[in-house]
């Protein structure tokens, strides 16, 4: 009896111990499985985070590249517009008085330039490109108008030459011609129009083109026109011409002859009416500013191949006096007798 009880007790104890061990093992397995699951979840989260970060980085790079490309496009478009405006502004200035009676192309270009300059610094690339095209088109219209006027003048001059040849007589002789300055017995003038004279200061002048008062002008010291009228220029231009004449006299042995200097507005109106587009539009002539001279239209003395012109072209700029590009032999309106003070 006693042994059976002991066996039963031992058997029960072993049964209880085995059950506890199984329970402990099951708990460990679950914990290990949970740990593996958590590690897997962490790996997935890390992979997702890395993918998200990579996507954001690529997006940022693309955005940066897009901004750089947009900036380059804008800079190129505005740079082209600035260049077109600068060139067109020069064309507008150079074409003053060179398009005949129809100044509409120059007016259109001036308006286009004003519109472009107002928005140049803020225009989008597309707007800048459109403005560039508009400015270029308006500038070309002015160039075409200048070319047409040059062709018209050339045709008129050719017709005049043909008419003189048909009449069997040459250009007027170089006898003293009132209002056309000094002449030479050995030379015939290239001028065949009516006589015009240099102007005196405009009484009550407001300082605009062709309306310069006495306070703005000074007469040169060494000569006057055939009527005894002094040759007036703006005071700084007159002082520079005095210095130029001294050097001219030392080099060539005689004073510089003058034909016309300051020209008031009424005289310019009369010249335009008599000579057409050969004369500048009233209110635009450089003579009206007191900053231009005409030497006599005597090709032997002051013409393209004369010693006097060679000296003036070479040395005049040192005194501020130049033969402007448009008046050169290959210019838009060749005038060997015309010089301007540029300071």
Please give a structural write-up.
The protein is 57% helix and 6% strand. The chain is built from seven helices and five strands. A three-stranded antiparallel beta sheet has the order 3-5-4. It has a two-stranded antiparallel ribbon with strand order 1-2. Residues 167-185 have low confidence and may be disordered.
Main β-sheet, spatial strand arrangement: 3-5-4
Uncertain segments: 167-185
Q: What is the distance, rounded to the nearest whole angstrom, between the alpha carbons of the first and last residues?
A: 144 Å
SSE string, helix = H, strand = E?
HHHEEHHEHHEE
Based on secondary structure, the structural category is mainly alpha
Largest sheet properties:
3 strands, antiparallel
Q: Tell me how many strands there are.
A: 5
Secondary-structure blueprint:
Blueprint: H1 2-94, H2 104-119, H3 125-167, E1 217-224, E2 230-234, H4 235-252, H5 265-275, E3 292-294, H6 299-302, H7 307-315, E4 321-322, E5 338-341
Antiparallel strand pairs: 1-2, 3-5, 4-5
Helix pairs in contact: 1-2, 1-3, 2-3, 4-7
């Amino acid at each position: 009896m006693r042994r059976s009880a002991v066996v039963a007790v031992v058997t029960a104890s072993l049964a209880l111990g085995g059950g506890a061990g199984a329970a402990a093992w099951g708990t460990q397995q679950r914990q290990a499985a949970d740990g593996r699951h958590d590690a897997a979840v962490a790996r997935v989260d890390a992979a997702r985070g890395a993918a998200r970060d990579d996507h954001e980085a690529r997006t940022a790079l693309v955005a940066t590249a897009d901004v750089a490309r947009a900036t380059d496009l804008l800079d190129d478009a505005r740079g082209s517009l600035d260049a077109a405006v600068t060139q067109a502004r020069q064309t507008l200035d150079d074409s003053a008085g060179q398009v005949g009676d129809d100044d509409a192309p120059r007016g259109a270009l001036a308006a286009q330039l004003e519109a472009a300059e107002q928005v140049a610094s803020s225009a989008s690339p597309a707007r800048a490109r459109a403005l560039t095209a508009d400015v270029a088109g308006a500038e070309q219209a002015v160039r075409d108008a200048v070319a047409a006027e040059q062709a018209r003048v050339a045709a008129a001059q050719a017709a005049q030459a043909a008419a003189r040849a048909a009449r069997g007589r040459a250009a007027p002789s170089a006898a003293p011609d009132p209002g056309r300055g000094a002449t030479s017995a050995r030379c015939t003038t290239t001028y065949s129009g009516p006589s015009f004279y240099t102007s005196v200061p405009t009484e009550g002048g407001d300082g605009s083109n062709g309306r310069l008062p006495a306070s703005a002008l000074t007469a040169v010291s060494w000569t006057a026109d055939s009527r005894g009228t002094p040759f007036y220029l703006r005071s700084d231009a007159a002082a520079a011409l005095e210095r130029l004449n001294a050097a001219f006299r030392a080099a060539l042995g005689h004073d510089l002859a003058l034909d016309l200097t300051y020209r008031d507005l009424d005289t310019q109106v009369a010249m335009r009416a008599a000579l057409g587009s050969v004369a500048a539009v009233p209110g635009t002539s450089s003579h009206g500013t007191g900053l231009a001279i005409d030497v006599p239209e005597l090709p032997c003395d002051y013409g393209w191949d004369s010693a006097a012109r060679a000296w003036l072209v070479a040395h005049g700029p040192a005194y501020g006096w130049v033969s402007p590009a448009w008046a050169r032999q290959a210019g838009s309106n060749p005038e060997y007798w015309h010089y301007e003070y540029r300071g």
